[in-house]
Amino acid sequence: MKKRRLTREKLTNWLWGYSMILPLLLGLGVFYFYPVGKVMRDSFYNVGAFNKSSWAGLANYEKMLSDSGMWKSLGNTFSYVLIIIPATVFFSLVLAALLNTKIRGRGVFRVIFFIPTVTMSAAIAMVWRWIFNGDFGILNYLVKLLGGQGHYWLSEQATALVCISLVTIWMGVGYNMIILLAGIQGIPSVYYEAAELDGASKIRQFFTITLPLVTPTLFFVLTTTVISTLQIFDVIYMMIPAKSTAMRYTQSVVMYFYRNAFEFSKKGYASAIAVFLFVIIMLLTLLQMRLQKKWVVYD
């Protein structure tokens, strides 16, 4: 009798538990799992206008191998990775360390640096597009005021990608700074007290205590920044016109996916691009998970 009552209790708990997470599971199924499955399925079809499809097999993936636009976009994406990730992680860590000290007005500085994170990326991109404008932008005004020569920053090959990277860095530093600040504040103060008794300077304390013990948080920031940078899209879309000559030198893989899907009506080929990017992100994330054992300190 006792065993039967326990079974009913487990069944009741099971039903209540799954009923609580059912809305979340339905949301994930409709908005995440189904679209992922649909994209994977469409990558093996020729899907054109009005979703008319025909079996293509591996033709979309074969086309990708010989598509110079695709490989140029992939090269641009890794250029963003090489510029954005080191700069974002470095400035986020430096700001987090500085704002963890007892400086005057640090609460105000935290809010100022965090504002870009809670501002719509479209609004930020439009403001920076005006700043970089070659005809009446404020940047060219300042350059000419100092005796320099203005540029069409978002049209020239040498500067367009760098400008996109700078805006992305500016947008991402605040969020990562808050995450790293929380990680730094989680380090026990006894370590710093012992270091001060031994006569260690603040810089030495940072490199021997703060930096090693914040590596778990730093690993999280690095992983999420890599993923978000590989998916860069909105800033490019808002700042670079589709017909601009700079589009070839700035468009990312996600931007190339978007153009194929919604401008050229090649949804099957765009789906293959999305699957390819998914595989790249997954492999890089797995690589980071393997390498973190060599530099992340869990204490």
Brief overview, please?
The protein has 299 residues and is an all-alpha fold. It contains 14 helices and two strands. A hairpin with a 5-residue loop joins strand 1 (45-47) and strand 2 (53-55).
Structure description:
- 76% of the residues lie in helices and 2% in strands.
- The chain is mostly helical and 299 residues long.
- It is globular.
Tags for this entry?
14 helices; 2 strands; 2% strand; single chain; mainly alpha; 299 residues; MetI-like fold; two-stranded antiparallel ribbon
What is the mean predicted local confidence, pLDDT?
90
Which radius of gyration do the C-alpha atoms yield?
25 Å
Strand content: under 5%
Task: Identify the CATH class.
Answer: Mainly Alpha
Helical content (DSSP H or I, runs of 4+): over 70%
Write the CATH architecture name: Orthogonal Bundle
Order of helices and strands: HEEHHHHHHHHHHHHH
What is the CATH superfamily classification? MetI-like
Please give the count of helices. 14
Q: Label the overall shape.
A: globular
Main β-sheet description: 2 strands, antiparallel
Total beta strands: 2
Please list the strands of the largest sheet in the order they lie side by side.
Answer: 1-2
Structural class: mainly alpha
* CATH T-level topology: MetI-like fold
The structural domain count equals 1
The parts where pLDDT drops under 50 for at least 5 residues are none
- Cα(first) to Cα(last) distance is 48 Å
